[in-house]
Amino acid sequence: MRVILLVVFILCQIDSFKLFAQSKAQIFVHAPVLSLVDSMKLYSQKERIVESFRNPYRTLIASNKDGIYSFELDSLDVWTWINMNLSFQKLGGIEVPNIMEEMLVEVDDSVHVKLKPKRGMFF
Shortest CA distance to 98 belongs to which of 80, 123, 116? Predict the structure, then answer.
């Protein structure tokens, strides 16, 4: 009887640990060459039923803090698609996700991106 109670107690502890476990992912963009007034947007989508632009998304905005933009995605339970762009990068007045596009992240991911400037014009 004691063994059964001990097993039930352990199983309850494991379930409660899962319940309170952190379900976060972190994304850091290292861009020391950008201005302190530049901001970065991250769009996250959990569900994909049809084309990406038709699904609901969440927008996070980060400001430049000593050349680092940081995002923390919380309440993750499934794969999440992310897109990122800088505030000044637009094509015909429309923001274009051109830093990361359609990248998948999951719980406990820690992504570090280093941006380096290059000369020229890119589309």
Answer: 123
